[in-house]
Amino acid sequence: MAFAYQSLIQATGFFFGHGSGNYMSRALGARDTEGAGKMAATGFLSSFLIGLVFMVLGWLFVTPLSRLLGATPDVVPYSNAYLRWILIATPFLISQMTLNNQLRLQGNAMLAMIGIAAGAVLNIFFDWLLINRLEMGVSGASLATLISQFISWCLLLWATKWPGNVHIRLRNFAPSLDRYREIGAGGLPSLMRQSLSSISAICMNWAAASWALEGQKASTIAAFTVVARIMQCAMSVILGVGQGFQPVCGFNWGARLYGRVSQSYRFTIQVCVIVLIVMSAWGWIYAPEIIAFFRDEDPELIRIGARVLRWQCVAFPLVGLTTPTNMLLQNIRRTGRATLLAMSRHGFAFYPTLFILPYIWGLDGLEATMATADVITFSIALPFSIGMLRELSARERGTFQE
Fold first, then answer.
1. Mean pLDDT over each residue of the chain, to the nearest integer
2. Mean pLDDT across 120-127
3. By the 8 A CB rule, do 300 and 343 touch?
4. Rounded CA separation 250/30 (Å)
5. Higher pLDDT among residues 292 and 401, named by residue
6. Cα–Cα dist 217/210, whole Å
7. What distance separates the 2 farthest-apart alpha carbons in the chain?
8. If you ran DSSP here, which 8-state letter would residue 348 be given?
9. Distance of alpha carbon 5 from alpha carbon 197, whole angstroms
10. Which SS3 state, helix, strand or coil, does residue 255 take?
11. How far is Cα of residue 336 from the mean position of the Cα atoms in its chain?
12. 3-state secondary structure of 78
C-alpha cells in the first residue's frame, strides 16, 4: 500500500535533484562556483523542507492516507504501522535523492553510488534484525528503512565535503523565484516521467484484468507485471549510460564546448542502441525461459509473458534514441521539449494506445501497447534529435541565431 507514496517521494526527490543538479553542472562548466553552491544548498534544503511538510500532513491524516492508497479496513492497521516510520523518514528520503543526483551531475558518480548502495545493503541487514530477531513485524520493516536511509543520507551529505565537490552550506541557502524557476525547468521532466511511469503500470494491470480470458486473470496480470520488472531492469542499464552522459553534457554546454556536447550525445546514442539491440535479441530468443525464471509453475503465465516480452523487444532499441535525447534537452534547459518527450512514453503515446488497441485486437492489442507507444515516442524524439544536432553544429561554427 505504501509503494505509491514512496513513488511520490522518489519523484519529488528527482525533481529537486535533477532541477538543481542540471543547473549546477552548467554553472560549473561556466566556472560559476558561487552560483553552483547557492543552487546546491537551495535545492537540498528545499527538498528537506518539502519532506517535513509531507511528514506532518501524513502523520495528521495517516488513516485517510492508507485508505487513499487502497488499504482495505483489515489492512489499514498494518498500513498505518508501516507508514508511520516511512513518514518520519520522508525528509531524509527526498533530500537523499536530491543529494545523490547533485553529486552525480557534478561528475562524482562513485560517491553517489556508494551512498545509495550503502543504504540498500543496510536496509537488508536491518530488515533481518528487526523483523526476524526482534519480531517487530511490519513496523520493523519500515523502521529498517528509516535507519538505513538516514545513514545513507549522512554518507551523501558527508560526500559533499570531499575536495572537488560543491559543499552544502546553510549560508548559501538563497531561495528565490529565479532559482525555483531553474529547478522547475530542470526537474519537471523527471517529475512527470516518474509519476506517469507509476500510473501507467497501475493502468496496465487494470487493463490486463479487464481483457484477460475467463479463469486467466491472475496469470495475465502476473505476466504483465513480470515483463514490466524485466524491462525495468533493462531500462536501468540505459538510464545508467544516459546519466553518465548528463554531467559531460552540462559541463561542456556551460563551457560553450558545443562540439564535445554533440560528440558525447552521438556516442551515447550509439552505445544505447547497440546494447538494446543485443538485449532485445536475447529477450526475443529466450523469452519463455526468462519468464519461467520468475515463475515456472504457471504455464499460462509463461505463454502470455513470453508474447508480451517479445512484443516489447521489437521496439525497445528505439529507446536508445529517445532516452539520451530526453536527457540532453533536460540538461540544457529545453524544458518544453524535454517535458513533452518525458510525458510521451508513459503518457501521450501510452494512454491512447492502451484504450484503442485492445478494442481492436483484444488481449493481443494489449500485449502490443508498450511497443506501439515506443514507436510513437521515437517519432516525436527523432525531429528533436535532428534539430539539436543542427543547433549544436551551428553553435560550434558560431552561426547559430536564437
1. 90
2. 92
3. no
4. 10
5. 292
6. 8
7. 69
8. I
9. 14
10. coil
11. 19
12. helix
Is residue 115 within 8 A of residue 155, CB to CB? The reply is: yes
Measured between alpha carbons, how far is residue 102 from residues 164, 190, 339 in Å?
A: 13, 14, 20
Residue 13 in grid coordinates? 526527490
Chain mean position to CA 329? 16
Neighbouring C-beta atoms of residue 102, cutoff 10 Å: 32
Cell 519463455 sits on residue = 288
**Percent helix / strand / coil, the chain, rounded to 5:** 85, 0, 15
Residue 153, judged by CB atoms within 10 A of its CB (0-12, 13-18, 19+), counts as buried
Q: Are 157 and 28 in contact (CB under 8 A)?
A: no
Q: Which residues of 204-238 are buried (b: 16+ CB within 10 A; e: fewer)?
A: bbebbeebbeeebeebbbbbbbbbbebbeebbeeb
Could you tell me if 204 and 224 are in contact, meaning their C-beta atoms sit under 8 angstroms apart? yes
> And the C-alpha cell for 83?
507508514
For the record, the C-alpha cell of 152 comes out as 545513507
- Per the CB < 8 A criterion, the answer to whether 87 and 54 are in contact is yes
Extract the C-alpha cell encoding 261.
556536447
Output the pLDDT for position 313. Answer: 95
Answer whether 159's CB lies under 8 Å from 112's CB.
Answer: yes
Chain position carrying cell 540538461: 331
Question: Which range, 35-49, 215-229, 357-371, has the best average confidence (pLDDT)?
Answer: 35-49
CA dist., res. 387 & res. 137, Å (int): 55
Residue 11, Cα to own-chain centre: how many angstroms? 7
CA distance 104 to 24: 11
